[in-house]
Amino acid sequence: MKDCNVCPHCCQGNQIGDIRCTYCHQDIVLPAEGAITIWRLGPVRDGLTGILARAIKDALKVSCVIQPAYLDERPSRRPHWNGISANVFLRQTLNRWRKGEIAALGITEKNIVPSASYNFLFGLAYLGLPAATASIHPLAGDQPSEQTLAERIAKIALHELGHTFGLDHHSYEEEIDCLMVGDETVDCTEGVDSGNIRFCETCAAVIHKKRIIRKVPL
To answer: Please, what is the Cα angle at 149 between 148 and 150, to 5 degrees?
Structure first.
């Protein structure tokens, strides 16, 4: 199925390269050179996207642009899975990254999974490539407060964005206080809540260097 951008005003599908909606002529893609863009797969609860954008701006010291258009849900739908395809969602997000942008981040209220046999993923990213995704679904299952949910999605999004800069995980055994501490086999909301929301000095230095490089159009 061909991917498209869905206009939030008239709900019509548009080609990915369209800046304005072909049908209602509203702006659906904003300029984002030198910034991280946030793309939503379907609607996201009120206020959360703005809080996430501020958290990314504070942590990475870059502008953050929330794109008006929604990603088309249809390519990633998997009726017989426990959620939508995390890999397709990530590929859709990468397809919307443009030269001169720092990275593209896809967020969704949907459950994202890599295959029919998995229950959930907090997020997924391409190591060293400028695309990452994060799901609110598994972070909201215990009905946390708005503040707790906002902190959780910020931690997951920043962790996945760290992967886009080429950062791998620190193991828990290293006892390093860093956002890049992680282990897929023990992922749980308790681990997210207890983890740091900042990068260690080593990871921050890598991000700083690569952030500057990505700001320059190739």
So the answer is: 90
Q: What is the mean pLDDT of residues 121-128?
A: 95
Chain segment 139-166, per-residue pLDDT in tens: 999 999 999 999 999 999 999 999 999 9
Q: Name the residue with tokens 């859709």.
A: 92
Which residues are the active-site residues? 160
Domain holding 17, by residue range, is: 5-215
Counted domains in the chain: 1
Q: Quick one: pLDDT at residue 120?
A: 85
List the single range of 40-54, 181-195, 203-217 with lowest mean pLDDT.
Answer: 181-195
Using one digit for the tens of pLDDT, what is the confidence trace for 65-88? 999 999 999 999 999 998 999 999
Tell me the CATH number at 92. 3.40.390.10
Across residues 96-106, what is the average pLDDT? 95
